[in-house]
Amino acid sequence: MWHMPDKIRPGGSLAPARRNHVCGIYQTMADPYGILAPAAFYVNYQGVNKMSYDIQTRCIHGQEHSREDALCSISYPIYQTASFSHLTPGHNPSGFDYSRESNPTRSYLEETISSLEYAADSIAFSSGMAAISACFELFRPGDHVICTDDLYGGSVRLFQTISEKNGLEIDFVDTSHVENINNALRPNTKAIYVETPTNPMMHVTDIAAAAQIAQAAGALLIVDNTFLTPYLQNPLLLGADLVVHSGTKYLSGHNDTISGFLCIKDQALADRLRLIAKTTGAVLAPFDSWLVHRGIKTLPIRMERHEENARHLVHVLQNIKYVKNVYYVGLPGHPGYELNKKQARGAGGMISFEVDSAQRARKLLESVRLITFAESLGGTESLLTYPIAQTHTDVPQDMREKAGITDRLLRLSVGLESAKDLEDDLLQAFGLL
Q1: What pTM value is reported for the model?
Q2: Which of 33, 60, 256, 399 has its CA 20 to 30 A from that of 43?
Q3: Which active-site residues does the annotation give?
């Protein structure tokens, strides 16, 4: 960061201002991330107009990247190299020495993600699990972490088999009731880790309230924002310290690469995590970085279509007699509906639903034709998942039962196909056509 002289600070505010080198936007004490205006706006610095773009534009162009391609290519190049030649001893003036530490293609992607999440810095990893693993390297044996009790099964497996083995103390609570977070606090609590909406039961946690609790306790608030993406929700603006993404899902959006991200509000914390990433080494490769960046360019239009299709299928499912419950945060009857409306700009494309028997659930999985029976989510193709046997098979049975993850529960990632074709496929799979 570098400071801008007060006499040329934007808007004539009395607060000192500075320019964020990642996002290319001006900051003030009252608006530390420079993003209170949701639409594009101009500021003037040394006679040059700078524009802070809407998110639709930032998905394609980023904000102001620290470097552009020397040959002015429209698609940023893939720097498929392990190392970079040196002109003199020490670090290269370009900032690139070895691709485990930094790579131009990955850096370009990281700057784009930072602009979308309003982060001081973002780090791209080889998977979402690699990102979470690096995040938990911040903690020491004896540290306590409070986690949402309805998490992606891989996160639960990591915390129970790796984090606890390394001496961390983990408590799982229903964070959709913030009093449970307060009740779980200990003197050694160092972090609160939440998904919102949760996977797969779609519980919603009040991010701002959780942030206040974390701040008062001297703990970090970490939010997995995979389901809603920065297009629909920005946890850092609500007080979170770190945002986690499985970039495999909506960010890349095409079921063709694996990736993960940490988006960090504070530069000092980001520096610690960059050292962890460089040392442990599970960073994103150049080609995968390019694939994710290409996917992000269409994120806004995809998220709009995902949600449009999801809302259509929710009403279809509600009118099928074999479906007993539908879990979707865009439904007015959902317990987290009003809170999600308050802290997010949409409901996304994820639906979970419960049928009347395990036999019918398995029959549905076998009978879909257009919808694919598979793990994962957030891609162009619609995927139907059986959490108890796929994404959450390693979650202890008592935790699954408490969360409501039964052999009757199915999770649907709604894709971009024709809504009518998806409706017909569900109806025929239920034997209603």
Answers
A1: 0.88
A2: 60
A3: 100, 152, 224, 249
